[in-house]
Amino acid sequence: MHDEQLRQLVTGMPKAELHIHIEGSLEPELIFALAQRNSVTLPYDSVEALRAAYAFSDLQSFLDIYYAGASVLLAEQDFYDMTAAYLRRAEQDNVRHAEIFFDPQTHTARGVPIATVIDGIWRACQDSPVSTGLILCFLRHLSEEEAIATLEEALPHRARLLGVGLDSSEVGNPPEKFARVFERARQLDLRLVAHAGEEGPPAYIESALDVLQVERIDHGVRCLDDANLVARLVREQMALTVCPLSNIKLRVFGDMAGHNLLELLDARLVATVNSDDPAYFGGYINDNFIAAFEALPLTRAHARTLARNSFNASFVDDERKRVWLDEVDAFFAEAA
Ligand code: HPA
Ligand code: ZN
Questions:
Q1: Which domain CATH number covers 96?
Q2: I need a surface site. Which of 26, 45, 146, 219 has the fewest CB within 10 A?
Q3: Is 199 a catalytic residue?
Q4: From 198, 199, 263, 319, the catalytic residue
Q5: By three-state DSSP, how is residue 44 classified?
Q6: How far apart are CA 188 and CA 118, in angstroms?
């Protein structure tokens, strides 16, 4: 994107973020500050040494460092500070609404009560002008029994939860492993999403839809390997929460010029742009827009579609959607 105008459009346009792991927003500086505050010893000597370790070869090599980084989170205030820092950045990037993932099992396994996790994240959300929803993610490398126990532990906080999701190591942990816990979440009227088709095959996207009955697919970029699946995703207007910088850092695509975002949009798939784990992958949501628009022949029309998709794919009611969609339309009319 040599076009400064296009850059101003994608950064200035109102948008929703639908794929952000709050633990992935923990910047190295905050990791070190929290380690000191909580007397946690890190296997890195400095912020620079930690940042230097952020060279990933695949999803698992990232997850190992991501879980180590999250180990500094102990007190409610830690979860507050992390979430407040993310929401300040999101506000700067003109994010109006964020549906935020969190991984309670990463914390309860270390003896942190789930109430501490949810209270801290929730309080930061209340203090931000950004509209928010919380999505509890199950770690798919753990058992379904552990996921069910986590959902039960979260039930006293049901009113603070928008939905549930599924993340962590994808290949070898297909959606059908979590059929019962998603069934239980559905009975509780929680909204349902799952990571599928990031490293895993199109069959995982299909089973997320058919077995888990999810309403949105996180990543989903590998759907293009299966033409029948693409036709179905278009027919059902099933949103994909695409994370361009993540896909490059975790080597789903060799470089941004080889990313399939434009093909997804041209196929009429409901693609959105998101940051995934911004502290680890080199940027927040606007950095993702800038990187994609610089490397790919994306246009102003694509920018508008991506902004509209982000609100249409969110779980807010139609009335609030309408307000933000009108704001998008006004923004593009003014920037004519
Ligand atoms: N994929 C799977 N699990 C994750 C990710 C991701 O991109 N980020 C944080 N947990
Ligand atoms: Zn993710």
A1: 3.20.20.140
A2: 45
A3: no
A4: 198
A5: coil
A6: 18
